Amino acid sequence: MPRKTKCRRVGHIPKSNFFKPSGIPAYDLEEIILKIEEAEALRLKDLMGLDQVDCAVEMGISRTTFQRILVEARQKVADALINSKMLVLEGGNYQLVEGEHNHQQGHHRGSHDRGKNQDD
Predict the structure, then answer these.
(1) Across the chain, where does the E strand assignment appear?
(2) pTM assigned to the model
(3) What's the CA gap between 59 and 47, in Å, rounded?
């Protein structure tokens, strides 16, 4: 029996919930789902420049779990960029947290239910 998945702590919800190549209608694009905790891993490691141990502490997970999440996130972003796919940020197993240790940039407060306008 697999272990219960531990809820990941997230300190920032991105303002946009999808990115797509310009000039191609969304209905013509294959979607890749990037979970919110995967976006948080990218933010902490690649944007904020924290080491993996500190990133794992911020998210309340082990370093090996953080490494796995980061690798999956990077693969998804690379696939979307290289193969012109739409990247949709949604879902996952996370808890939004506030505090001095979150290294937040523009912390989002309020509803996590963001509309998706794919007609662009």
Answers:
(1) 8-10, 18-19, 31-34, 86-89, 94-96
(2) 0.79
(3) 15
Q: Please state, in angstroms and rounded to a whole number, the distance separating the CA atoms of residues 90 and 36.
A: 6
**β-strand 94-96 against 86-89: which pairing, if any?**
unpaired
Q: Structural domains in the chain?
A: 31-90 (1.10.10)
Tens of pLDDT along 12-60? 999 999 999 999 999 999 999 999 999 999 999 999 999 999 999 999 9
The H-assigned helical ranges of 3-116 are 36-42, 52-59, 63-82
Distance CA 63, CA 68 (A): 9
Q: Give CA–CA dist 27/118, Å, rounded.
A: 8
CA dist 24 and 56 (Å) reads 37
Q: 116 or 91: which carries more pLDDT confidence?
A: 91
- Residue 102: phi, psi to the nearest 5? -90, -10
Average pLDDT over residues 75-83: 98
